[in-house]
Design goal:
Blueprint lengths: L1 H6 L6 E2 L5 E2 L9 H17 L14 E2 L7 E2 L7
Antiparallel strand pairs: 1-2, 3-4
Amino acid sequence: AAVKNAKGGQVQYRTDKGGIVHCTIGRASFSVDQLKGNLAALIDAINKAKPATTKGIFVKKLSVSSTMGVGVRIDSASLV
């Protein structure tokens, strides 16, 4: 069922106690456009899950990395 849901476009992410979101947006073999599209879909899903009572900026910092690699900061304004 998990593979079927993933192929259907279901976005799964988890957060830790510090509010950091962990999610896979693709593989190293994906094109840049595919990774950008997946990242945009993730940000959209996170913003849709934002509680109505939450005020201010919901996503403050954004970085991506490979599984064991160093994180690279991304300007979230460039994704809009």
